[in-house]
Design brief:
This protein has one domain: Alpha-Beta Plaits (2-Layer Sandwich). A four-stranded antiparallel β-sheet has the order 2-3-1-4, with helices on one face. The protein has helices at about 20-30, 65-70, and strands at about 5-10, 35-45, 50-60, 75-85. It has two helices and four strands; from the N terminus they run βαββαβ.
Length: about 90
């Protein structure tokens, strides 16, 4: 089996959340679980921004769900959606 690139959209709880601090928490929590390829800020509207987290992980059953659960459990995160999964 190979690896997959999964893109997660992470929405903060509040428009006033510090996204750089949230990005640091994401990197800390996912350290050792998967490799973070990139994290980009996405403008949603009305001042709301999301983080698009590109994570590389083994193509194993349940791995993307595990990472999504870890992201959802981070303080300051309101919602996590899986945007894209691609075999690499």
């Amino acid at each position: 089996m190979g690896d997959v690139l999964v893109v997660f959209r992470v929405l903060p709880e509040d428009v006033d959340n510090d996204l750089s601090r949230l990005e640091s928490k994401i990197r800390e929590k996912l350290n050792g679980v998967c490799k973070i390829n990139d994290i980009k800020t996405e403008e949603i509207g009305f001042g709301l921004k999301a983080l698009n987290v590109q994570a590389i992980m083994p193509d194993e059953e349940g791995m993307a769900d595990r990472v999504e659960s870890i992201l959802a459990g981070i303080e300051g995160v309101s919602q996590v959606d899986t945007k894209d999964i691609s075999l690499i």
